[in-house]
Design goal:
The complex is a heterodimer of chains A (192) and B (205). By secondary structure, chain A is an all-alpha fold. Chain A has helices at 3-14, 20-30, 34-51, 66-79, 84-94, 96-122, 130-133, 137-143, 152-164, 168-177, and one strand at residues 56-57. Chain A has ten helices and one strand; from the N terminus they run αααβααααααα. In chain A, 66% of the residues lie in helices and 1% in strands. With 205 residues, chain B is an all-alpha fold. Chain B has nine helices and one strand. Chain B has helices at residues 22-30, 35-56, 59-75, 86-104, 123-129, 140-152, 156-167, 172-179, 183-200, and one strand at residues 114-115. The chains are: A mainly alpha (192), B mainly alpha (205). The interface between A and B is large, with 42 and 59 residues. β1 (56-57) of chain A pairs antiparallel with β1 of chain B.
Chain lengths: 192, 205
């Protein structure tokens, strides 16, 4: 172990808080390194100086009223219950794991909302082509919308089929696509 | 470190309760016996106050923060797991409360608590104030002031590590649990804090 690593262990060594192999390594290093020995001496003096702070005490009457002061604060807090946001704020302030979970759950919620919006409004099916795409291939094939203008006979035949099949919306759609005026079968006017 | 001032007259402790463990007391609180929490306060109020005082540097804020810590602990006692160490858990709440307070305040003032009688018996104090140490010409108040100022010059996280390790006597493993970091991080912070303090207190080392 080099001096830098040994010096990082010196505070724990000075506090007799090192165990096992680390303690042996530090002892072995200190046997032949005067610089680290000097660092250990400084660390021990610093610790002794800081330990003086253990003797600092508040006024002798301070702790006599400590418990009653706690009860007073507790009751006043009970009487003034914080709002939902106040409780969230308290959790957020001192609970680090909750803070992380809050961020993650907010991000997941935003993602879910965005995906829902996208799937609902952006990729919504085009209802104008729904009739054609939802299994009306026979209509296309029979009438020939994609390739050529159908004949009057073909249109009337298909129109009758749809009416008999009780698909009035489909039949009106077929008429609209071929520029028919919506009317009864008897008074249908062909307009190409 | 002293165990703190004598108990208030209004508080009566049953003989068997003197040996009740923290786990038992927490269990009683969780079962609805709020008075058991009073025993926990009596046990840890001195040490927790000491930690807060060394973190913030003045009595008023330390008193306020230690009360706030106990209130938070009481309100969240139901989430305390019985296999954990109550002392570490309480200190974690306290240190986090102190660090958040320090990050929120712009400027703080230092106030000096009084020192107990055992101070003058410590070898370190005798050495610092001996007549042989003429170059120092140190008195108690000056030493206390210098110590507190040096601690306040550290960052909040470094100060917390020094307070917990060198004043409270916690080990790195416990400090890591209190601060929510790894043992290596706690060790590294302590090393850096010691480097800074040795520079600030060079005249007294």
């Amino acid at each position: 172990m080099n001096c830098q690593k040994i010096r990082q262990l010196l505070p724990a060594f000075a506090a007799q808080g090192l165990e096992g192999s680390n303690e042996h390594k530090v002892k072995a290093h200190l046997d032949h390194c005067a610089d680290c020995k000097g660092s250990l001496a400084k660390t021990q003096k610093l610790r002794a100086l800081l330990a003086l702070k253990q003797h600092e005490q508040p006024d002798e009457f301070f702790f006599r009223t400590y418990l009653s002061e706690f009860h007073r604060r507790l009751y006043s807090q009970i009487l003034q219950k914080p709002s939902f946001l106040g409780k969230l704020n308290e959790i957020f302030l001192w609970n680090r794991p909750a803070r992380f979970l809050w961020r993650v759950s907010s991000a997941v919620l935003m993602l879910v909302l965005t995906m829902s919006f996208y799937m609902t409004y952006v990729t919504a099916p085009n209802h104008s082509t729904e009739f054609l795409s939802s299994g009306d291939d026979t209509v296309r094939q029979n009438i020939g919308i994609a390739t050529r203008a159908p004949s009057v006979v073909e249109v009337e035949s298909r129109f009758n089929q749809l009416v008999l099949a009780d698909k009035p919306s489909h039949s009106i759609y077929v008429l609209d696509r071929l520029n028919y005026e919506p009317s009864t079968r008897a008074s249908a006017i062909l307009q190409f | 470190m002293s165990d703190g001032p004598p108990q208030p007259e209004s508080f009566e402790k049953k003989p068997f309760e003197a040996d009740v463990s923290d786990t038992e007391l927490v269990y009683r609180v969780q079962s609805g016996d709020a008075s058991a929490f009073d025993l926990l306060i009596e046990k840890y109020k001195g040490r927790l106050y000491g930690v807060m005082y060394n973190m913030v540097g003045n009595h008023e804020d330390a008193a306020d923060l230690s009360q706030e810590t106990f209130l938070k602990a009481f309100k969240s006692i139901s989430s305390f797991r019985s296999h954990a160490n109550f002392y570490t858990w309480l200190y974690r709440i306290g240190v986090n409360t102190g660090i958040n307070f320090l990050k929120g305040r712009k400027e703080g003032h230092l106030s000096l608590n009084q020192w107990d009688e055992q101070l003058e018996d410590t070898p370190t104090f005798k050495e610092l104030t001996s007549s042989d140490n003429a170059s120092q010409n140190l008195d108690r108040e000056e030493l206390q002031q210098k110590l507190n100022e040096a601690l306040q010059k550290l960052s909040e996280e470094h100060r917390a590590v020094v307070v917990l390790h060198d004043i409270e006597g916690m080990r790195h493993q416990q400090i890591a649990k209190v601060l929510g970091c790894t043992e290596a991080t706690a060790r590294s912070r302590l090393f850096y804090a010691h480097q800074q303090l040795q520079a600030l207190l060079a005249n007294y080392l």
